[in-house]
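Key idea: predict the complex, not the pieces.
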Amino acid sequence: MNKIKILSEVDIKKILNMNIAINAVESAYKQKSDNKGEVWPLVFYEYEHNVFDLDIRSGNLDDSNAYGLKLISYNENNPKVGLNKVNATSLVCDSKTGQPIALLNAAPITSYRTGASAGIGAKYLARKDSKNLLVVGSGNIAIYSIVATLITMPCIEKVIICNPKNYNSLLNKIDNIKVDINNLLVECNLELKATIVCSNDIETSVKESDIIITATPSEKPLIKSEWVKEGTHFSCMGACMEGKQEIDELIFSKAKVYADDINQCIKSGESQTAFKNNIISNFNGEIGDVILNKENGRELEEDITIFDSTGLFIQDLATSLEILNNSNGIGIEVKL
Amino acid sequence: MNKIKILSEVDIKKILNMNIAINAVESAYKQKSDNKGEVWPLVFYEYEHNVFDLDIRSGNLDDSNAYGLKLISYNENNPKVGLNKVNATSLVCDSKTGQPIALLNAAPITSYRTGASAGIGAKYLARKDSKNLLVVGSGNIAIYSIVATLITMPCIEKVIICNPKNYNSLLNKIDNIKVDINNLLVECNLELKATIVCSNDIETSVKESDIIITATPSEKPLIKSEWVKEGTHFSCMGACMEGKQEIDELIFSKAKVYADDINQCIKSGESQTAFKNNIISNFNGEIGDVILNKENGRELEEDITIFDSTGLFIQDLATSLEILNNSNGIGIEVKL
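Result:
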């Protein structure tokens, strides 16, 4: 068998930045819209609910002659034994022959590609004059989503971070969050210009925001429909499994709703409750259709738009391929 | 992240032999019967029917504290560009933490573990005095199945190999097949004692055989029901996808039928047509239940028995773990 390239977390951090991720994820969404990128069925297994689970995501990108998979696990108990909660590994293969070409630590890739999709949702669906960005959640995905949205929406002046479950924890780590955001912007030769504030009042924060990103593991709505002003855009990042929900399903009745993958969103996305309760019966399109102007996105200033991002392996695959293209002299090659 | 062990085809061939595979696969079947080994949903994708396809198999073994997956592809065109038809890669993880612990070239493992299951089927279901073994098919799986069955059934005196599609090709390679069989036996400190013959008359061969192993990619039955004598055992290895069939579905009406995994066999095993045509409505059990004496296997000399082996990732996982246990000083460790 041929040699495969092994890229560790350290290797990947030398190569990847948010601009690369945004371009790669856009390319994946576009290939999907053109039927050149497929999302294969998700395998999900739970050792203990909300404590230890894993999933296998897979798919292909025809323009890139590649397919592959990602095995990602989340273990809440890992920090007790000095390990990361998330372990993620991707295998990339050549779709002309089937040969494996690379093994990558997919944990950093997951953070970047997930953040990128939040930013892409805002880029194509939010009002161009959006000034206030609210991010609900203060973990890794929140940080990467803020960075991507600051890049795609340079008009943003204020970022409000709200952690409805634990405000004190947010206050304790806000300085580190600002440093992380700045470092990720510096990787793209940018700097943090927007003001970053913490909020303990989610209702007021929702009311003053133009773009809202949700990035929590919540299983019940954190944002009520009556708080949402006209013109708001939502990028919903947290719901990626059955039973998850971050925003009131009634918001869907007055919104234009876009999926990363329609089937996956109906089953496991933020839209699942709206579908179950017959609040909506279809999407306005997939994000790739909007990027390629096959479907209309926002049409009026007062439209409420929702991007339901469940996360697709093709985002990881496109990002992994960009990393591989830029990996000369980095990583090791192993005969398999 | 921790270090993972990388084991190449060459590394694995230094460690693995058929005895290791038989013991590992039996252990996997037993854990499954005790609800300690699970088979997760199969992902299958076809680039071109019967030319290029791939699947992702996954699952866990609780007693071994492990889970993982195998990505395996088959590309009929690969030899034209000097590559193997089969590419297979397994990722093994620690089921206490989720950390990946090893990446293995799963092509040799697949051959051994598949052969092992044919031999285990015979061991637990064939008549103890079986003398003649017929193997339909002459590819890799046929060779490994012969070796495993010679090990589990040392009573076998004659092996008849039949390639109904291409007898000349079989004649051309029979000397190599004998060498391969002998080499695989020598790995286990055994030698080839049985006679190996080629047959171009499948009907007569079926009529004189006690054990029949089918290992072809056939999509229609090669063995007619009226040829099958009382007391015959079948280990059906070839059917692992929808649409495949090697033996007349009418044989099922007079046989005791065992699955490696009931759900997978109904969907994609040799039993699929018998189920679709309502010839049978359930199995006599899974092979693990027979090994553990939870279900009866053969009861009478004249019973016809069928083991439908679709192939389970837990067979690969158990074998991979045995390889890892014996890999001191072999392979390389890489920080991921």
